[in-house]
Each structure stands twice: as C-alpha cells, then as structure tokens.
Design brief:
This protein has 148 residues and is mostly helical. The protein is built from six helices and three strands, in the order H-H-E-H-H-E-E-H-H. It is globular.
Length: 148
C-alpha cells in the first residue's frame, strides 16, 4: 500500500471517529453556531484577549466579514468587545457569558470522551498520537510560512 492510501485510510477513520463523537456526545451542545462562528469563538477562547485583526489573519478572512461574525457572536452573548486601554483604536475580544457556558459544557464532554475512549489507549500510544499530530502540525505550518 502506498503512503497516500494509508493517509486516506487514516483520514477516513478519524472522520468516522469524529462523526461518532459529534453525533453521540457533542450534539447535546444546544448552541446555534455556524462553522465560521465556532472558529472565531475557538480563537477567542484560546487566545483571549485577542483582537479582530488577528482573528481575520488567522482565518484568512476580511476584516469586514470577521467583524460581522464577531457582531453576531457579541449580540448572542458569546463574546465581549472592549477597548484596549493601551491603544484605544484596538478592540479586544474575550468570552462572554454564553461563550463561557459553551466551553464549560464542551470541556465536560471532552473529559468524558477522553475518559471513556482515549483512556483505552496506553500512555505510550497516546504519546505517539500526540507526537504524530505535533509533527504534522509543524510540517503544515512550516509549509504555510514558505507559501506566504
């Protein structure tokens, strides 16, 4: 079997696992977020406080479309905009009350999935999974820098 076939098989298996998790566990998250809204919320969650320009860059979106996504998330209580006290032209985003609730529920489900399924892997297998993911991330991000 050539390498491409192994990669395709691995992608297919990961997609099946993710579909199972989404259907049986994460579907209980009753939040009406579009995929782009989720990506914005995820960046705010991981990097808060973060500015709109940074999110637009990371998602390769225009400032205007990013601002529209942020406005919807702000109106729904997922994020809060605030002015950077050091640079009054810059707007910071942090999680709002609904965003905090979302991630509290998301993290509970995440922990459950880890305890139920990933705990069946040995520590060594878990480290290998992490190491492969790190290596692939490094390869992809280095290629991204070269293309820019």
């Amino acid at each position: 079997m050539e390498q491409a076939s192994y990669v395709i098989e691995a992608f297919d298996l990961f997609n099946q696992v993710n579909s199972h998790f989404l259907k049986h566990y994460f579907s209980s998250l009753n939040y009406a977020l579009t995929p782009k809204q989720f990506l914005v919320l995820e960046l705010v969650h991981k990097s808060e406080p973060v500015n709109v320009h940074s999110i637009a860059e990371q998602l390769d979106l225009s400032i205007s479309s990013t601002s529209q996504l942020v406005s919807k998330l702000e109106n729904d209580g997922y994020v809060i905009r605030s002015i950077n006290p050091k640079n009054r032209r810059e707007i910071f985003l942090t999680l709002g009350e609904k965003g905090e609730e979302y991630y509290a529920e998301y993290n509970k489900i995440d922990r459950f999935v880890i305890e139920k399924f990933f705990s069946q892997l040995s520590v060594e297998e878990t480290k290998q999974l992490r190491d492969i993911a790190k290596k692939l991330h490094q390869v992809v991000t280095e290629d991204q820098v070269v293309q820019e």
